[in-house]
Amino acid sequence: MGKEKPRISLLLTGGGARAAYQVGVLKAISEWYPRVHHSPFSIYCGTSAGAINATSIACYASCFRLGVKKLEWIWSRLHSRRIFATTPRGMSGYLISQWFARLQAHHHDRPPFGLLNNRPLRQLLNQVNNYSRLEKQIAAGNLHGISITASSYKSGHSVSFFQGQSDINEWDRAKSKGRRSLITTDHLLASSAIPLVFPATRIGQAYYGDGSIHQLAPLRPSLKMGADKILIIDLINQKLDSPDHTRAPGLAALGGHLMDTIFSDTLTADLENLSRINALIDSMPSIQEKQKLRKIEPFHLSPSRSFEHLARKYYCHLPPMTRGLMQLIGISPKDDAAITSYILFEPAYIHALIKMGYEDTQEKEALLRSFLIKSGN
């Protein structure tokens, strides 16, 4: 018998509107396969906006190009109003209701706080995702597992909700848990609830927020579900502009720096740790059997250019009320466009990110093809 094909995991990190870049990457990869070819990935792991992308294409694991085309169709028709309330009445009414809720007595249940009302996103996800397809893909053997990571505000732990084959076990590690669950819109909303921007989502008896907050080991869900290779499509922002160090950082600069740190730093540390373990296995092959370690091959793909110049260019496309709210709390693209790049769900900006992801992937086609096709997919 031939050697069993290695399982490849697709790991999609968070980044709000920046996740359109991942669509461009997947579009380029899908063109290397026939129209009815199954996905080269059997494991999908997503956090924040990456969780939404991962779920969408995992539903079509048996036909990779179809899944990517549907994902591109959704993103190319996005507007801010499909993600959060943007009308004057909708935004002001939501903020006033938040304010009144906090004036009530403590024994009344208060809604989770968020500057933006993401109810339109809930409606959109319910419309475009057929979650029952996930179980069908698992039963057919096209999908080994999918994991959606969120952060528990109750325990302070990173919780990966997964759905997959019966041989995947739940896990408990330091500040990290894996729990078997049927993936729903609630899991996606929880994982993508950027702190202060979007309200937390209740799952069971606890509230959950953006999965990047407490995620100390982003590679763990892929490893726990049996991945042999991991393709990571990251959304690390390339800082190409030289900042003015003589100016005190304002709210925009601080917020952008904090969000960039949340979404990127732990992944870098986890990749370094994986590299050390692989080097140890290479230098001491005997340890592989004794400690039951296995070598994992990662491929890390990140944007070649900064998101910020695009965010500045298309800032004017944001709805007037959204721009007004941002300016009211001191956020302006003149200071720092990092925060804007997360919430700019407008067609022109999204198309630019999809194009960037497509072009970056084409430039690394030879390396990526070797990584994927060498695996027999």
Describe the structure.
With 377 residues, the protein is α/β, with parallel strands linked by helices. It has a single domain (8-90, 116-236, 253-373), classed as Cytosolic phospholipase A2 catalytic domain (3-Layer(aba) Sandwich). The chain is built from 15 helices and ten strands. It has helices spanning 20-30, 49-58, 64-76, 88-101, 119-128, 132-139, 185-191, 220-224, 251-283, 286-290, 308-314, 320-328, 338-343, 347-363, 365-373; strands at 8-12, 43-47, 145-152, 158-164, 171-173, 176-180, 201-203, 206-209, 229-233, 297-301. Strands 1, 2, 3, 4, 5, 6, 7, 8, 9 and 10 form a ten-stranded mixed β-sheet that branches. A hairpin with a 2-residue loop joins strand 7 (201-203) and strand 8. Helix 5 packs across helix 7 and helix 11 (308-314) packs antiparallel against helix 14. The longest helix has 33 residues, at 251-283. It is globular, with a radius of gyration of 21 Å. This is PNPLA domain-containing protein. Pfam families: Patatin. The active site is at residues 48, 210. One of its GO terms (molecular function) is hydrolase activity.
